[in-house]
Design a protein that fits this description.
It holds the Pfam family DUF2768. This is Putative membrane protein. Keywords: Membrane, Transmembrane, Transmembrane helix. InterPro entries: DUF2768. The chain is mainly alpha-helical. The protein has one domain. The protein has 2 helices and no strands. The protein is elongated, with a radius of gyration of 15 Å. The two termini are 13 Å apart. The model has no long low-confidence stretch (mean pLDDT 95).
Length: 65
């Protein structure tokens, strides 16, 4: 697999993390109560931070030859 294709799949994974975090934050704010709300929110924010770091590294690494 070429480096460009590998970077594409990694960025798709980061976008998936963002979608999961958006859905989890929605559920933690409006649908869940108690301990589940806190756990879901923490997991969602971890996914969002991880996705941001991955996307930052993909963009900073620049184009592939």
């Amino acid at each position: 697999m070429s480096p460009g294709l590998m970077k594409m799949w990694i960025s798709f994974g980061a976008m998936g993390f963002m979608i999961i975090s958006i859905i989890s934050i929605y559920f933690s704010r409006y649908k869940l109560k108690g301990v589940f709300r806190i756990i879901t929110a923490l997991i969602a924010y971890v996914f969002m931070i991880l996705a941001g770091i991955i996307m930052f590294l993909i963009v900073i690494s620049g184009p592939t030859s």
